[in-house]
Amino acid sequence: MPELPEVETIRLKLEPRLVGRTLDRVEIDDARLVRPFEPQTVAAELEGERVSALERRGKYLIVRFESGRALLIHLRMTGSLRHAEHGALHEDPHRRAVVRLDDGSDVAYRDVRRFGTWLLLGAGELGPYLATRLGEEPLERGFTAQRLAKRLEGRRAPVKAALLDQRTVAGLGNIYVDEALWRAGIHPLRPAGSLAPEEVARLTRGVKEALRAGIRRQGATLRDYSTPDGGRGRMQDRFRVYGRDGEPCQRCGTPIEKIRAGGRGTWYCPACQRLEGDAASRSSSRPSRSSRQSSV
Ligand SMILES: [Zn+2]
């Protein structure tokens, strides 16, 4: 499922195509996309709107209109957007909606599993809608170790589950949580509230670094995700732990293991990410930079 880096890649590619354009014709062919509203009603509401900005918050894509209204798109499992010049769109049985822009080009929405949603919000409705659903935006300056520590404080859930909760940090999913925890050297089953301040600081950096690495490689294409020009992401070739059980840890050489945490398949290095945390491993065998060099 697309996470922050995939949605941000889509945003970056679509922004120059969409901003300043008017939605000339809108076809919505799947009632699930806009329920409980009627597809024809939503399509008619969208026609004539002019795009003022394309933004992202967590995993939501936000199409802002000059009218003050906003279309909130969530891709869920398998949603994707494609931009095509006039007449260049080919047949696709999984297409759920097409927007014709006033330059003649099309933006098509495709969704195999059909869990994605389009929600048209009135002026002033967007802020309150997102505020109750999303926590800190991890790539903004406001996302600090202190802020993250507050969100984790007192929580007994595994840190993996706490990070999948969009109210802790917005935009993380199964892939980038595992990648961030490996970068931070934190075991996914550690109770969220048990992390020492130093560990939360490492986790804050780990989250930012894992997400930036994903954006640099235009996201990860595992199954359905593609960029709006039809390209593939390349992050799947650079995962440190995700999907790599049995392969050597890039830091210490120990085989990566797979467990379940937060209800999801979870990959981690049993040597770099100790369940006892820093306190127990400081005196024993936490891998150092020198042991990494000798073991790889
Ligand atoms: Zn390791």
Give a written overview of the molecule.
With 296 residues, the chain is an alpha+beta fold. The protein has helices at 4-18, 31-34, 39-46, 126-131, 145-152, 159-164, 174-184, 197-216, 277-281, 289-295, and strands at 23-28, 51-57, 60-65, 70-74, 79-84, 95-101, 106-111, 117-121, 257-261, 264-268. The protein has a four-stranded antiparallel beta sheet. The protein has a four-stranded antiparallel beta sheet with strand order 2-3-4-8. Strand 3 and strand 4 (70-74) form a beta hairpin. The longest helix has 20 residues, at 197-216. The chain is elongated and about 60 Å long. It starts with a helix and ends with a helix. It binds zinc ion. Zinc ion is lined by residues 249, 251-252, 254, 269, 271-272, 287.
Assembly level: single chain
Elements, N to C (H/E): HEHHEEEEEEEHHHHHEEHH
Radius of gyration over all CA atoms, rounded: 21 Å
Largest sheet: 4 strands, antiparallel
Number of strands: 10
User: Which ligands are bound?
Assistant: zinc ion
Q: Please state roughly what percent of the residues sit in beta strands, choosing from under 5%, 5-15%, 15-25%, 25-35%, 35-45% or over 45%.
A: 15-25%
